[in-house]
């Protein structure tokens, strides 16, 4: 065998070994990554003290709901995409428009700015939880229907939740007090006069109950 033939043979062997090494190294790296992600590897550790638990039980609309959440996950995301409660709208996603407003222990909160794991042990109420079991609308919902206070109605659920909190705290508000109570909600259609009419009607209906 000539020197050139031996050199070509050695080069082929070297290339094969190199490729085998790359494939083996990639497989090992993938396997290690999988073990870390799945938590089944020897290096997997339990949640550090004080870390947010992933599997939570939330009380939503009077029911216990078990859900898996990320530590940085917002309540709006959990409600819409994990629990299917799409009545809670996401508009600005930065605590400005109020379309994601829900009640947490009776207080109106922007669910886009509340971390889900902070709501454990609290009562969460969304727009889906207002009507009675037989389908009877909440007085505030009925007032909005009767008053036809919204155009596109994307912001309506957030306004309604704020109205529910308003009439509970102040059953007989003035128009100025109603405007103040709803000042955390924005309407892209700018139909604020009709919305305030509905708020006053909502207070009247709630007083009858």
Report on this model:
This protein is α+β, with helices and mostly antiparallel strands and 209 residues long. The protein folds into two domains: 1-44; 71-208, Orthogonal Bundle (DNA polymerase, domain 1), CATH 1.10.150.120. The chain has helices spanning 3-38, 75-82, 139-147, 156-169, 175-181, 192-208, and strands spanning 55-60, 63-68, 101-104, 107-110, 123-125. It is globular. The model is unreliable at 22-46 (pLDDT under 50).
Describe the SSE topology.
Layout (H helix, E strand, L loop, with lengths): L2 H36 L16 E6 L2 E6 L6 H8 L18 E4 L2 E4 L12 E3 L13 H9 L8 H14 L5 H7 L10 H17 L1
Parallel strand pairs: 1-5
Antiparallel strand pairs: 1-2, 3-4, 3-5
Helix pairs in contact: 3-6, 4-6
Overview features:
single chain, alpha+beta, DNA polymerase, domain 1, five-stranded mixed beta sheet, 5 strands
